[in-house]
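To: structure desk
From: M.T.
Subject: fold request, one chain
Message: Could you run this one when you get a chance? Sequence is below, nothing fancy, just the single chain.
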Amino acid sequence: MLRGPTPTPTSLRALRGRSGVTLIEALITTVLFSLVMSGVYVFYTTMQGTLSRGEMKTDLQQSARIGLNRMVREIRMLGYDPESAIATLIRDNPSMNLGPRPLLDAAIRAASPDCFSFVTYYNDNSSPPAVLRTIQVTYTLGPRPALPKLPTLQRQQDAWDATSRTFTLSSTQPQAESVNLLSFMYYDQSNGILSPSGGLTYKCPPGSSYQPSSQLDYSQIRAVRRVAITLQTQGSPFRAAAEFYTLTGDVYLRNR
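Reply: Done. Structure tokens follow.
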């Protein structure tokens, strides 16, 4: 059996003279290390939260901007009717309370604080040559989902059917996600606010299942010259306060 060298009295005294780490020193080292790591973790989580909020706010801004820009562009062309659908609707509905400019007055199909429906057009490129088509466009919020989710801005497009002499549902598309607020405000030519009244029975759009609680009546619709839009999106990053982004648009109606 191999054995190591036997310790001499001199080597034993040398070992006993070395200083070791006491319990107090070990505890202090552990505390200092914990403080440093806590600081690193707080810094990391703060930067991660800032980055997440920045990305989320960018998404909110982009979503709201795309939705609002399309609304403004289409509302500005309200009343452009290449297939003469409005004239047909007027002939078929002589009871409509129209003013001296019936073709323009009837271009607004329904108007409430949270729903706006109107006649405009689109360029149909489905088969050459391209053809201008009359459509009915409605902007409103979609069904409210279970919390914490928020509804989407919905654009409903109804195509004009000359055979049935009515608008029929063509498509419904989301335009902006996580919408906290959609608001329409209507002004007359003197910039007076047209206040919607309750108890009206028509839908938005006509023929749909949605009936707003307050709406403009036909005499008020005739007076609309400007539409102000407010669109607000909301996001809630993990373990952070909700972020909001609000855009507004102001549209003077064409030829009114």
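Reply (cont.): Residues 24 and 230 are 64 Å apart (CA to CA). Let me know if you need anything else for the meeting.
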